[in-house]
Amino acid sequence: MKSNFLLLTLLIFISCKAQNTPLYIGTYTDGYSEGIYKLDFNQNTGQLSNLQLAISTQNPSFITYSRNKKYIYAVSESLGGSVSSFKIRENGHLKFLNKVSSNGEGPCHISLNRQGNKAVVSNYRGGSASIYSIARDGKLNDATQIFNYNTDDKVSHAHSAQFFRDELYIADLGINALYQYKLKGDTYELALPTIVEMTENPGPRHFTITKNGLFIYIINEYGNSITSFKKTENGFEQIDYDTTLDKNYEGNNSCADIHLSRNELYLYGSNRGENSIVVFKRNKFNGTIQKIQTVPVHGDWPRNFTLDPSGKFLLVANQKSQNISVFSINSSTGKLSFLNDVKVPRPVCLLF
């Protein structure tokens, strides 16, 4: 009888461990936070638990995985700007590997290519972007390419970048452009200084690309809007422009993050000020979107959000209220329902 009880206890423990997946949290270390934190996320219940400091490091405001999920890379919005690599230990804590210059002030975003051998960092205050090669041991090499966008009459604020196959796209909030680069040999060459002309200073911040690469959706920080583009034989064309705000909202707002659902039928964006997540239904044939929901984030200043690996939950990092809110996603409608939240010091980036 006792052996059966022990076996049942072991099976329950293994089952609970299997349900949990780690969530790493990038933060601002301005008196409340100490660095990168880790939580356990239950993919069945949507519950977050077991908050731990994964590593002490300065202002890791954006973080990303290596392709094999053995390493984590983080920008540091510290004086001078840098980007660091960390190895994930067996207990989920992080081991510092190395640090290199971001080649610009205020690095705010990092992403990797599909092969996992290159990283690109966007420097907001520096108005530049840097490309790095990644060694087999997970360490970052010094930048192989640096793009500087400031001119005599324009102030750049590079805010995010993504590789897509043999292309690279960089969003510049200051110059109102989405640059397109193409890989030639081992270097990226500018193909288009902006894929389409943007008017009225929208401030393109983050963007998402469909899996087939035919559609790009940009969330505009100043314009409180999403601009939708379609790739054509001759470049790109704008197909849609939609506000992210509720028609009755009249306060200040700054858009932040944007993500597609796994099935690409729904598009989500975050509003800082209105403090909401806006939900759009997406037409997969022509790429246009239609707003179907605006839901409060149960916090203040939703800088970043993410979908869990199952695609059943959406989690929001509320910077000013220092909490992470969890929403369930209705698989039939894409709409969100608030489940719970947990306190975390100054969360600004969530990584599954």
How would you characterize this protein structure?
- The chain has 352 residues and is mainly beta.
- It has one helix and 28 strands.
- The strands form seven sheets. A four-stranded antiparallel sheet has the order 3-2-1-28. The chain has a four-stranded antiparallel sheet with strand order 4-5-6-7, with no helix packed on it.
- A hairpin with a 6-residue loop joins strand 26 and strand 27.
- The radius of gyration is 20 Å and the shape is globular.
- Mean pLDDT is 95; it is low at 5-14.
| Amino- and carboxy-terminal Cα gap | 40 Å
- Mean of the pLDDT scores? 95
Low-confidence stretches: 5-14
Instruction: State the helicity in percent bands.
Output: under 10%
**Number of separate helices:** 1
Sheet-strand content, in percent, reads: over 45%
Coarse structural class: mainly beta
Stated plainly, the CATH topology is called: Methylamine Dehydrogenase, Chain H
Can you say what the CATH homologous superfamily is? YVTN repeat-like/Quinoprotein amine dehydrogenase
Report the major sheet.
4 strands, antiparallel
The gross shape turns out to be globular
What's the number of structural domains? 1
Q: Looking across the biggest beta sheet, what order are the strands in?
A: 3-2-1-28
In the CATH hierarchy, the architecture is 7 Propeller
Order of helices and strands: HEEEEEEEEEEEEEEEEEEEEEEEEEEEE
Work out the number of β strands. Answer: 28
Our Rg estimate from Cα atoms comes to 20 Å
The CATH C-level class name: Mainly Beta
